[in-house]
Amino acid sequence: RFAGDGKTEARHIALFHVLSELWVNEGKPESFSPDTNEVARLLTIGHSTALRWLNELEKFGYVELRRGRNQ
Fold first, then answer.
1. Would you give the distance in Å from CA 22 to the centre of its chain?
2. Which of 8, 44, 51, 70 is most buried by a 10 A CB count?
3. pTM for the predicted model, two decimal places
4. In this predicted model, what pLDDT tens digit does every residue of 5-52 receive, in sequence order?
5. How far apart are the first and last CA of the chain?
6. Contact 62/21 with Cβ under 8 angstroms?
7. In which element (H, E) is residue 15 found?
8. Among candidate residues 28, 31, 17, 41, the one with its CA nearest the CA of residue 64
9. How far is CA 60 from the centre of its chain?
10. What totals of helices (H) and strands (E) does the chain contain, helices first?
11. Reduced to 3 states, what is the DSSP secondary structure of residue 9?
12. Angle at Cα 31 formed by Cα 16 and Cα 24, nearest 5°?
């Protein structure tokens, strides 16, 4: 359970929700690369905060991130 795993907080749930909405809007592809600036805008947080939260979700095993060349 995502909400009851003891690792995630409300911010992680909000981020996962935004990612899910973007994924659905993209037509539920096998994989997708959301624009982290758009994610940050939708959550009304800074870009570096969005990246930190994404990294936390990856650490918890909820998403798999593919790093770009300049990351």
1. 10
2. 8
3. 0.85
4. 888 899 999 999 999 999 999 999 998 889 999 999 999 999 999 999
5. 30
6. no
7. helix 10-25
8. 31
9. 12
10. 3, 0
11. coil
12. 55
